Amino acid sequence: MEHFSMGEGWHLRPAGGATGEAYVAEQGQQKIFVKRNSSPFLAVLSAEGIVPKLLWTKRLENGDVITAQQWISGRELKIAEMDHSRVAELLAKIHQSQELLDMFKRMGNRPLIPGNIFRALQTHVRHKGLDHGSLKQALQQLESRFPNLTEQDFVVCHADVHHNNWIEDEKGNLFLIDWDGAQVADPALDLAPLLYAYVPEESWEMWLRAYGRKPDDSLWYRLWWYRLVQSIENILWYKERGDEAQAAGWNLKVEELLHKGSGAQS
């Protein structure tokens, strides 16, 4: 890592990940997780037990901020474990954190408004020349009725609740890591991909009760709406990378969502 040294006896090695900004620092039997320019609200996440303990923060002369966290000898949750109530309970804790929300807003982050999400998606689809067939129909359905939200409905969303980001330590404590893409948004932004990808439809209501929410027609609709948006975004993402097989798979998911309709539970 340029412009930074852990000191004598410490060795840095890349920890992997998409950003290339994460490292493992080792000295003998000691090991810590080090990251450059991680989420600025890491301290709040650490204090609330959502991520591994923050050990220290250091600002470098070039403006970069280095953070060090406790290393946990843990494991990623398996796909089959994502429907457990403890996942629902930790996500609820995140969504209900007023301190996290207040800090995020103080940093100038504005809520993701459904209308803005739609317009950006529509522009992207049209730019790629894909505004036809099932995608055209999907855009029409999304535009016909935006989720009705008030300011009180917005929370801090992780925005990437893939099972690889859920880590269990050796003591059984659960953490949700990798907060670089977090947003102030409708909680359904997190709930939709998690439920559709990992929780059997017949268990949705029970899972949501563990999350602390009694589902109603509004929530069912919002889950459908965000899942349709995210499915289209995945089509675009895979097409840009030339992976037509994955794009076709997500196109099938779009067609399934259109067939089931916005009034369906899934």
TrEMBL record:
Top-level taxon of origin: Bacteria
Record-annotated Aminoglycoside phosphotransferase domain positions: 15-215
InterPro entries, per database record: Aminoglycoside_PTrfase (IPR002575), CcrZ_PhaseVar_Mediator (IPR052077), Kinase-like_dom_sf (IPR011009)
Source organism per UniProt: Bacillus daqingensis
Name of this chain's protein: Phosphotransferase family protein
Cited Pfam families: APH
